[in-house]
Amino acid sequence: MRARTGRHMDGVAGVGDVEEVRGIDVLVLGGAGVDTIVYVPELPLPYADSYLIDSGIRARAGQTGDFVALGLAALGLRTHHLDFLGDDPEGDLVRALHEQHGIALTAIEQPAGTKRAVNLVSPDGRRLSLYDTSRGRAGDRFPEDTLRGLAAASRHVHVSITQPCAEALPVLREAGVGISTDLHNWDGENPYQAAFALAADVVFVSATALPDPRATMRRIAERGRAEAVVATAGAEGAYLLAGDELTHVPAVAPPGPVVDSNGAGDAFAAAFLFGRLHGEPPRRCAEFGALAGAYACTVPATESAALPRAELLARADAR
Questions:
Q1: Where do the domains of the chain lie, and which CATH numbers do they carry?
Q2: Beta strands, E only, the chain
Q3: Nearest Cα to 284, choosing from 316, 257, 237?
Q4: Where do the Carbohydrate kinase PfkB domain residues begin and end (predicted)?
Q5: Are 95 and 85 in contact (CB under 8 A)?
Q6: HSE on the CB side for 154, CA within 13 Å?
Q7: How many CB atoms lie within 10 A of CB 22?
Q8: Coil, helix or strand at residue 202
Q9: In angstroms, rounded to a whole number, what is the distance separating the alpha carbons of residues 175 and 157?
Q10: Contact in structure between 261 and 172 (CB atoms under 8 Å)
């Protein structure tokens, strides 16, 4: 199994090359892939034999790990992304995205191909995602020496819930590095996401599928290691549990028309981690997250962009 690494992905690196990496603020684990974007007239989409898509159907790099890495890099954090990628056109799109934004990438060769999804996006910015789960193998594992070397060089690791990141959690805990994760639309019960929730110091989750978000947040903190738990609730803002205090963080008015909610949660997580790594209190971190998430909703699904550091800080100071 080969690991291709470096800022410009211009060679094949062995373990020794990875061990030479130093000075990473955040290692992003997993979540690299390509989405095919289809703008549809409404969601749910009524059955029809066919639809004419005048806006085009476009493939672009950017799944959850890519967007978190993009957000972190835009905020000036030294970011490194580790995941499996195929030797295919989709993998080339992911590599190009990282090179364009100066994000270091270590790509483990994946014979099954690069992860892919189809996103149906409605006029009001809502989306329905169809994930291709065939782009992986049950026995996939990150090379342990590569994982340990990158973790040792990092201040923090953000772990996507894509396979095989769950298998990396014990190694990361042993390495003693801080961990965050995003459970996305967890129902509060599925044991797969629960393993991530209980292993992380900072947990993000969407409130969408949670019957009682507050109770779930407290359960995560009581049973796991989390110092902060955030449940994002779209236009209703977010809920923050830090220590024993649970507070509501209001939503922020987007700086432009809402065109797509895809990536808003990833932007929130990146900005929250930016604040945390700069010693900001949890409430301030969540406010950073709300600002970045609102900005992400103004970025078309066919593009990849994140709120820059100077703009985030200016908006935060103006509130």
A1: 3-318 (3.40.1190.20)
A2: 3-4, 12-13, 24-29, 34-39, 57-61, 79-85, 104-109, 116-121, 127-132, 154-159, 178-182, 202-206, 228-232, 238-242, 245-249
A3: 316
A4: 68-304
A5: yes
A6: 30
A7: 9
A8: strand
A9: 11
A10: no
Distance, in Å, from the CA atom of 176 to the CA atom of 155, rounded to the nearest integer, reads 10
Q: Over the stretch 279-301, which tens digit does the pLDDT of each residue have?
A: 999 999 999 999 999 999 998 87
- Arithmetic mean of pLDDT, 28-54: 94
- Relative to beta strand 3-4, strand 12-13 is antiparallel
DSSP states of 237-295? -EEEEETTEEEEE-----SS-----TTHHHHHHHHHHHHHHTT--HHHHHHHHHHHHHH
The answer to pTM > 0.85 is yes
**Average model confidence (pLDDT) for the chain?**
90
Do 58 and 107 form a contact (C-beta atoms < 8 A)? no
Contact 139, 108 (CB under 8 A): no
Q: Provide mean pLDDT across the span 146-160.
A: 97
Cα separation values, 217 from 64, 205, 213, 221, 309, Å:
21, 9, 6, 6, 29
What is the rounded distance in angstroms from the CA atom of residue 173 to the CA atom of residue 165? 13
Q: Is pLDDT at 17 greater than 50 in this prediction?
A: no
CB atoms within 10 A of CB 303: 13
> Is the pLDDT score of 10 beyond 50?
no
- Which tens digits make up the pLDDT trace of 245-256? 999 999 999 888
The model's pLDDT over 88-122, given as tens digits with 9 standing for 90+, comes to 999 999 999 999 999 999 999 999 999 999 999 88
